[in-house]
Design a protein that fits this description.
Blueprint: H1 10-32, E1 35-36, H2 43-48, E2 56-62, H3 81-87, E3 92-98, H4 105-114, H5 133-141, E4 148-151, E5 175-177, H6 179-187, H7 197-200, H8 220-227, H9 231-238, H10 244-258, E6 263-268, H11 279-302, E7 310-316, H12 339-342, E8 343-349, E9 357-359, E10 363-364, H13 368-376
Parallel strand pairs: 1-9, 2-6, 2-7, 3-9, 3-10, 4-5, 4-6
Antiparallel strand pairs: 3-8, 7-8
Helix pairs in contact: 3-11, 6-9, 10-11
């Protein structure tokens, strides 16, 4: 059963959330020497940051959060070497990011994308009700369709690029690339697709779910035009990849190379294989996400279109159940709505972002859209979140 944050005892949820973030803060302070934000930030500093021209943003969300037990706690640190040793020392790290909405991957990602808690059925083939960050970005800044893209983990995310809002909607959203859909279409041209089966499972939580598709996804025939990648080359390269997340990052790199969009959103999904109940595969997903985030950041720094003008935002959509919560299934699911399911983290890297700094005050996942609005200069008028001053 999915629960909302408001269903919990408020004293309990606050205490547990603070304990979780406190553990992260203390661990990072000891291992990286990160400073508390209060010693580095003041009102004048925050207000003095001026956005340079031509700036870009890359957002990476994890579909299926990784618990502290398998990441920031002592037994989990070996699973995130790139986050700990390479990325966090360059980042402002938020140790207490709370999701107060519905804990389903599509609806939760839609809430992050719109900056407002969406309340539709997670498995419904619908667009978000509120305007998306892509629509605000394109409408206010008069950006072309090629300047905003989403690389989505499954066909269930087909409508994430544009909302159903009357003032926005069709024609103003982001282009959506569904790598699994493209690969399926490419393989239909060949006799043997068995070597690609590990890349094509669309949903780990409900394997029989087959959503209807709509929106602005590119089709196989458009791939060569958009990505400068033939169907044969795409399928050939995919055959050497270990996971769907690697396929998504491969596509994202092609987008950056060919179109250099100013706003690129990539959702990783391998961690959600935890729903299978196999702990080793869940940990593999964490390790792979850790590596891919570092590789994507290196790609940003190596690309002249992105280097020194790009902020990268990394955050889980939400967490997973604790091992002791009644009615939960530990790492396997996110059903209880307990504090561990809702309290995650975010790191932000970029040329104007303070490095090796920890922010321990609570923020919400819906605060990302207003933060991007301050970063780019658009007005997310219908968002319920607030700009995060330390990185806005």
């Amino acid at each position: 059963m999915v629960k909302r944050f408001s269903d919990l005892n408020r004293g309990t949820q606050r205490d547990v959330a603070q304990a979780i973030s406190g553990n992260r803060r203390e661990f990072l302070r000891l291992t990286t020497g990160a400073a508390a934000a209060a010693s580095l930030f003041g009102p004048a500093t925050l207000n003095a940051m001026v956005a340079p021209k031509g700036r870009k943003a890359v957002v990476v969300t994890f579909g299926g959060g990784a618990r502290d037990d398998e990441t920031f706690m002592p037994d989990g640190q070996e699973n995130i070497p790139h986050l700990l040793d390479e990325l966090i020392p360059q980042a402002t790290f938020f140790s207490q990011v709370v999701n107060k909405g519905i804990l389903g991957h599509y609806v939760a990602t839609a809430s992050i994308v719109t900056g407002a808690y969406e309340n539709f059925n997670n498995f419904a083939a619908v667009s978000p009700n509120n305007p998306t960050v892509f629509e605000y970005f394109r409408k206010d800044l008069k950006r072309p369709a090629t300047d905003s893209w989403v690389v989505a983990p499954s066909n269930g995310f087909a409508r994430i690029g544009e909302s159903a809002h009357k003032a926005f909607g069709p024609g103003l959203g982001a282009g959506v690339i569904l790598p699994k859909r493209l690969l399926t279409a490419a393989l239909s041209r060949t006799a043997d697709g068995s070597r690609y089966e590990h890349l094509l499972r669309d949903n780990y939580e409900t394997p029989l779910y087959a959503p209807s598709l709509a929106g602005r996804q590119i089709e196989l025939g458009q791939m060569a035009e958009v990505l400068k990648l033939s169907a044969d080359d795409f399928a050939s390269h995919a055959g050497g990849l270990a996971s769907p997340d690697e396929l998504s990052v491969y596509i994202a790199r092609h987008l950056m190379k060919q179109l250099a969009p100013s706003l690129l959103w990539v959702t990783l999904h391998d961690i959600d294989i935890a729903h299978s109940g196999t702990f080793s595969l869940y940990v593999d997903g964490i390790r792979r996400a850790d590596r891919l985030c570092a590789e994507l950041w290196r790609s940003i720094q190596a690309n002249p279109e992105y280097a020194n003008k790009t902020n990268m935002y990394i955050l889980p959509d939400f967490g997973r159940d604790s091992d002791i919560e009644p009615g939960g299934n530990g790492f396997q699911h996110h059903r209880t709505g307990d504090a561990m399911s809702r309290t995650t983290w975010m790191m932000v890297l970029g040329p104007d972002v303070k490095q090796n700094v920890i922010i321990d005050r609570p923020v919400e996942s819906i605060d990302l859209v207003p933060t991007l609005g301050s970063f780019f200069g658009f007005n997310p008028a219908l968002s319920a979140g607030k700009p995060i001053a330390e990185v806005a």
